[in-house]
Amino acid sequence: MARGGFSHAERRTINKLLLDEADAGVPPPQCEHGPAMRFRRVTKSADGSVVSSRDFYACSAIRDRKICPLFVWVDEHERHGAEHPAKRIRRAGPARQYEKTDNKANAQYFFSNEALSVIEKYISKHGYRRVLCLGTPVVHRRLREEKDMDAFLLDMDSVVVEKAGTSGARFNMVNGFFFGSEEKKFASWLKKGPLDIVVVDPPFQPELVPAIWRCTREVLLGPEVFAKVDVLFAFPYFSRDALVGSEDAPELVMNDYRVDYANHRTYKADKSPVRFFTRFHELTDLPAASYRVCEKCGGRWVHKVNAHCDTCRACTTLHGNKAWSHCAGCGKCTKPELKHCEKCERCLPVEHTCTRH
Predict the structure, then answer these.
(1) CATH homologous superfamily for 113-287?
(2) Over the chain, what is the mean pLDDT?
(3) 71 phi/psi in degrees, rounded to 5
(4) How far apart are CA 26 and CA 312, in angstroms?
(5) How does strand 325-327 pair with strand 197-200?
(6) pTM
């Protein structure tokens, strides 16, 4: 047992990104990916009380310290000043083609042809011509080469940025860091005309989303431009609450389209948990083999297994190959493999252990 009567197994540690925490006049350390981000490591006991709390700096792009070893406790950094011996990142692996990934430092997953077609239809239907591709190199390539659209790519991967030529710049979407003199290329492109839409495929880490919104709004576009542009944002449905958790976040709608990745082993077709979130319009004209129109939802396109619930007045199936059903006890639709437990007062697997008595 640990001090205080709780075992270590009963404690929970979380790392929270801090955006507005003031530094003590000492700039944050840097690695190859730009300025580090500040996090707060909080450990709580079983009763929810805080056991410990301490701030640290870490790489904004890489969570694996075997790849980017930058990790500095904030109090130590401020005590030693800017000369703190923060470690530098190792060099990335060999260059690759769009279809492959090499290691965790540069691994990217690319939308399948079907997902690209869905994006392309959305952009074309609403008359968009100027597109900012944030972490979406295959979207950028397809729009420029096949649709002759004015698209610009911002990506941290030097390989895909090099392929983009003058229509791309190396950029870290989490900390807003442009590599070298890349910012000039983007600024020049942005001045050429009004921007229509930003297409984003970010790291799937909920704690980083507020930083991405702030970076897009404050560093890249400015509040006035950001307020007028459409957004198409790829993110897992189970982390959707993270998309609305900051003052910089736009109001988005989650579309019932399961995003397929060409080179991901599990994010494939119907099994993918990733959805497209959009700002001004919903997706339409989805592939007929897997999607249908729900007239009760006002003509909204939904997955073929997504049944309309008259009680909820919506198509409520978020994932899986079977429709969710309404639970009167929970007051909402739940997964078909769950059953309402009167003791626990919620739907749970049949073979669960009750936590309430």
Answers:
(1) Vaccinia Virus protein VP39 (3.40.50.150)
(2) 85
(3) -155, 120
(4) 52
(5) unpaired
(6) 0.84
pLDDT at 199: 97
CA distance 92 to 308: 48
CB atoms near residue 218 (< 10 Å): 13
DSSP 295-316: GGGTSEEEETT-PEETTTTEE-
What percent of the chain has a predicted confidence (pLDDT) above 70?
87
Q: Which helix (H) or strand (E) holds 293?
A: strand 291-294
d(CA 123, CA 263): 24
Tokens linked to 59: 């790489």
With a cut of 70, say whether residue 4 has pLDDT above it: no
Question: Crossing angle, helix 113-125 and helix 137-145, to 10 degrees?
Answer: 60
- Residue 353 CA to residue 343 CA, distance in Å, equals 10
Distance of CA 114 to the CA centre of its chain: 20
Q: Taken in order 318, 320, 326, 329, is the CA torsion positive or negative?
A: negative
CATH 3.40.50.150 domain extents, the chain: 113-287
Q: Structure tokens of 124? A: 């074309």
Query: Coil, strand or helix: which one is 151?
Result: strand
